[in-house]
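W.,

You were right to be curious about this one. When I first looked at the sequence I had no strong expectations either way, so I just let the prediction run and decided to look at it fresh. Below is the sequence, 954 residues in total, followed by the output.
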Amino acid sequence: MSETNSAAEVAAPHRYTAAMAADIEARWQDFWDAEGTYEAPNPSGDLAGDAELAAKPKKFIMDMFPYPSGAGLHVGHPLGYIATDVFARYQRMTGHNVLHTLGFDAFGLPAEQHAVATGTHPRVSTEAAMDNMKQQLRRLGLGHDKRRSIATIDPDYYKWTQWIFLQIFNSWYDKEADRARPIAELVAQFESGERTTPDARPWSELSAAERADVLGDYRLAYASDAPVNWAPGLGTVLANEEVTADGRSERGNFPVFKAKLRQWNMRITAYSDRLLNDLDGVDWPDAIKLQQRNWIGRSEGARVDFPVDGHAITVFTTRQDTLFGATYMVLAPEHELVEKIVPAAWPEGTHDVWTGGHATPADAVSAYRAQAASKSDVERQAEAKDKTGVFTGAYAINPVSGEQVPVFIADYVLMGYGTGAIMAVPAHDSRDFAFARAFELPMRCVVEPSDGRGTDPAEWDDAFASYDAKIVNSSGEDISLDGLGVVDAKAKITEWLAARGIGEGTVNYRLRDWLFSRQRYWGEPFPIVYDEDGIAHPLPESMLPLELPEVEDYSPRTFDPDDADSRPETPLSRNEDWVNVTLDLGDGPKKYRRETNTMPNWAGSCWYELRYLDPHNSEKLVDPEIERYWMGPREGMPHGGVDLYVGGAEHAVLHLLYARFWSKVLFDLGHVSSSEPFHKLYNQGMIQAFVYRDSRGIAVPAAEVEERDGGFWYQGEKVSRVLGKMGKSLKNAVTPDEISAEYGADTLRLYEMAMGPLDVSRPWDTRAVVGQYRLLQRLWRNIVDEATGEATVVDTEPDEDTLRALHKAIDGAGQDMAGMRFNTAIAKVTELNNHLTKAGGPLSRSVAERLVLLVAPLAPHIAEELWRKLGHTDSVVYQDFPVADPAYVVDETVTCVVQVKGKVKARLEISPSIGDEELEELALADPAVVAALGGAGIRKVIVRAPKLVNIVPA
């Protein structure tokens, strides 16, 4: 400590310093915990009988679940948490019953990978990470109801995740009723004959295995053999959303291959239309809604059947008007019909370019399938210059022309969209055009070009695509589309197909069912067992939770990352005592085998908002009255849901779509009153930081980089600087603990909120933090004597200038906090505090108190301390937010600009409430305006009271 600093502290022992801030903050955090300050009451019994609670509006405010990283928090992580805390505090002060809490999404691959590397149980490392994060978050003064905090790894929590899975497993989607119903109601329909079985046999004649197969085609949670994303390097399968654009795993960056495995799926596709339509009833950013709509991908068109060797290739097309132009077909390499239609030998006259140089169709197909399996869906759909594929050796019949068309397989067709088969109309689709050119396939123009290129595709450079053109060359024996526009042609051909039973108008979706299995240890076990016939049986609720067993090896078996032929082996499968059990499921003790996959880490975050409401209920998922109170539909919220949900835009599809699906199933089954989980969604931006890299491209410690001579240097070597993410691996992370130790948590809170609009990314600058620290020091000095530590306020009325500054700040900051414009709210508080500093002298008590109340949501610790120094014994948390007096908010005068011929000639100081006629008279009478007109007549006067008058001379 320098002599200067030491002398200053002796002269001002009660100055607001980092040490004082630390003491104040720790004391008030202890006080809030001891008093249960942030505990939000639930309704109990009849809400109408709880008059005080019923009179309060409620506000349920949530942050997206954090994952408890072993690295802890850096200053970028709390941005959203601080914002929701400020908003929640403001809502409490405006009379709301606020539920604000935070839990942990604690299952996940990082803890499992740590366990594999160290032998430490994932629970041990995860709980240690949670404890560390809790301490870091507590230090920020976040007003969470800690009674409601949850962690997805707690058996009391995942009991209900398993219970929800069973509700979904025991449900089917009734298309006529447009909702989910219990599977028992479907069984009753089969038993009564109201619904026929697939082969029309009576239900009673079906074996147990046959009945299970029938119900599996209806269940909302089902197991099936299907192409999946297999990552040998991780030893697990992945959902489409967990695979990056370059065909690698999002976690670990391993290659991902297509493999056919039996996995659990969620029939989210049954809800496609509702997931689309209900977006209109939620208050979400347009960009997020658009991403969800694009992911669901609804398109209208027609289903068309193309006969081939006793089978039918079914295609979905949105351009059924171009059927006469279909000159070949393409199946996805994984399509189930490929093996059924491949002949033993190449048909006579097969082009050499079609065979890929293979002796038989089977050889060609096998080789090409292996090649396609090594590519991601994104790679397969990329606009590559060279189109690849191979002829299957089979021909299909074009149903409108009767022509034979060759059937190929090619990797640009995916099983994940449509039917996994396309009719190729190369004259009017660029990808088909390129493929046809590469394989010397015929092309027929059926949509008349409007650009003068003629109707011979052989002379074109690319396909011609248009929805605003005439159909040509499209006549058969009993139908002609020639001369029709696209819309009319589509309607006519669809009716023709339906009349012959070879097609129909239909709707298709890009959305695929949700792959719900993972070959991991650290996840929720499935509450499913299999009997000796392989039939899946749900565990009864009395056997929940099914807890994770101990295992010797936490790792799924991993393989060479490039070994596409490998298959999963899960950690749970090695615990034979757990896997093989004898249970009584209601028909006596029998031997069963447990499911050895675990649920994905998304499972626990699909419903956590509900557990926040009623976290200790051991009898129900959530008490219906409590759920209805906090999340039920009401005016402006037709689907109900959380009032405010804040998190990153990166969860636009994965988490949000899955949570919406679970919410709708629970709603259909009568367990909740809200059909949407989150009514208002707000995406905060990102706090970025400079990344410094040496000549090798390796990140160096940002804190040790020097800036000199217009460049940046690390240990004598010049390094590059770019703005990017903040993180431990980039060696540029700054922890909230560091900033809190140097300036105090209130300073950190103010700085993060003042950096810019909440929804915009912004760069971190540690040097700029001091500005908010000085604001708090000035605030302190305006109220507290630094020598005595006592409040210096006086019981006198403030002058009019101070009243105007005060009420303008109250009005502006209040509106800004309600609108989550915290940076501008801080600017208004700063402006008021500066006014009071310049005015000098002791503050009026009424001004000081309202200043503290303005600051309270933003910097709660110093606000509590000042509130006590002002003589109050109750917490500032539930004080009323100040209300502005309109008389002081409106300026006494405003400046009106008067223009003549568009040039400013005068400025008038006038009342803000002046009318148009009076303002026009004043403007025309102003000497400068009279001189500018020079006696000329007036053609027009435009008045925009009170700011502008524009005079147009004759």
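Here's what jumped out at me. The longest strand covers residues 221-231. And, maybe more interesting for your project: The first helix runs from residue 3 to 11.

Coffee later to discuss?

I.
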